[in-house]
Amino acid sequence: MSSNSESVQSDDNFISARQTMIEQHLRQREITDPRVLEAIARVPREQFVPPESQRFAYNDCALPIDCHQTISQPYTVAFMCAAAQLTGNEVVLEIGTGSGYGAAVLSLLAREVHTIERIPALASQAAERLQRLGYDNVHVYTEDGTLGLTQAAPFDAIIVTASSEELPEPYQVQLSEGGRIIIPLGSESTGQRMYRFTLNNGKLSEEVLGAFVFVPLIGKYGHPSDHPE
């Protein structure tokens, strides 16, 4: 009984911290899409980080996860989701599953989410976690994410959580008419900026959305110096 009581209290604390994070770090930084804010409010980020990091789950920062990787800061996840302009009926491809947190948020914003993780152990953990938490419209794959996912294309939105020097060609051919690609482009030396590419009448238009810092996109169409062995 004592353990259950402590668990409920802990959950209440996380809910309060989550709402504070939304008000102080998302709304104040111009994340205003009500669907995105609602999705962030519903996803328990503390479930996507190691136990020793749970007390930091609602700090607006990246946190370490297994395999020497990180979970993105909530602002970055919210920004990319808002930039994708999802209405609820889309099929989305996410590149870089990590802990599964971003996919969980996307699952509340789109009809179906396909997410690719290149590290098998992380992909397995994320798939188990997402299933356990009830995100049944998320499908996890262990692949080279720079190749996209031909078998599930076309996609209404493609969200890439690592930076490339240029837009990988497979994403362009796997995008549906009217679809959006959200991706950081650039390098640490030249600087990285978030881009939104939109396919209209068979042609891609691009918008620069701001400066960000991401790890390199690894794979056949990723950074030339970061191809996997």
Helical content (DSSP H or I, runs of 4+) = 25-40%
Whole-number count of domains: 1
Sheet having the most strands:
7 strands, mixed
Indicate the structural class. alpha/beta
Strand order of the largest sheet: 5-4-3-6-7-8-9
CATH class descriptor: Alpha Beta
Active site: 72
Organism: Gimesia maris
GO molecular function: protein-L-isoaspartate (D-aspartate) O-methyltransferase activity
Catalytic activity: [protein]-L-isoaspartate + S-adenosyl-L-methionine = [protein]-L-isoaspartate alpha-methyl ester + S-adenosyl-L-homocysteine
Explain what the structure shows.
This protein is of the alpha/beta class. The chain has a single domain, classed as Vaccinia Virus protein VP39 (Rossmann fold, 3-Layer(aba) Sandwich), CATH 3.40.50. It has six helices and nine strands; from the N terminus they run H-H-E-E-H-E-H-E-H-E-E-H-E-E-E. It has a seven-stranded mixed sheet with strand order 5-4-3-6-7-8-9. A two-stranded antiparallel ribbon has the order 1-2. Strand 7 (175-187) and strand 8 (191-200) form a beta hairpin. The longest helix has 25 residues, at 2-26. It is found in: Cytoplasm. Keywords: Cytoplasm, Methyltransferase, S-adenosyl-L-methionine, Transferase. It is an enzyme of class 2 (transferase). Its main location: cytoplasm.
Describe how the helices and strands are arranged.
Blueprint (H helix, E strand, L loop, with lengths): L1 H25 L7 H9 L20 E2 L5 E2 L2 H10 L7 E5 L5 H7 L4 E5 L3 H13 L5 E4 L13 E6 L8 H5 L1 E13 L3 E10 L2 E9 L18
Parallel strand pairs: 3-4, 3-6, 4-5, 6-7
Antiparallel strand pairs: 1-2, 7-8, 8-9
